[in-house]
């Protein structure tokens, strides 16, 4: 399994829902299943609370608050 780390600064806020989102191209992560983990204060990772919208060319991850995350694919 591979992963990509993203900083909370990569998220943008959706004006309508007030959720924070990040778009990732399928060229970067492929077409398989992904999971998202949130970085904790002690530099470890734990399962994040997120929603995924899977489009043809990209995956959108939506969270209630921005966080440093690891996307496993």
Structure summarized in a few sentences:
The protein is mainly beta.
Task: Give a description of the structure.
- The chain is mainly beta and 73 residues long.
- 5% of the residues lie in helices and 47% in strands.
- It has one helix and eight strands; from the N terminus they run E-E-E-H-E-E-E-E-E.
- It has one helix at residues 26-29; strands at 3-6, 12-13, 20-25, 35-39, 45-47, 51-54, 58-63, 69-72.
- The strands form two sheets. It has a four-stranded antiparallel sheet with strand order 1-8-4-5, with no helix packed on it. It has a four-stranded antiparallel sheet with strand order 2-3-7-6.
- Strand 2 (12-13) and strand 3 form a beta hairpin.
- The longest helix has 4 residues, at 26-29.
- The chain starts with a strand and ends with a strand.
Q: What keywords describe this structure?
A:
globular, mainly beta, 73 residues
């Amino acid at each position: 399994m591979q992963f990509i780390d993203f900083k909370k600064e990569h998220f943008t806020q959706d004006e309508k829902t007030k959720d924070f989102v990040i778009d990732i191209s399928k060229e970067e992560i492929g077409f398989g299943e992904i999971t998202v983990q949130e970085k904790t204060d002690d530099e470890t990772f734990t399962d994040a609370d997120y929603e995924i919208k899977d489009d043809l060319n990209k995956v959108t991850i939506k969270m209630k608050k921005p966080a440093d995350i690891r996307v496993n694919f």
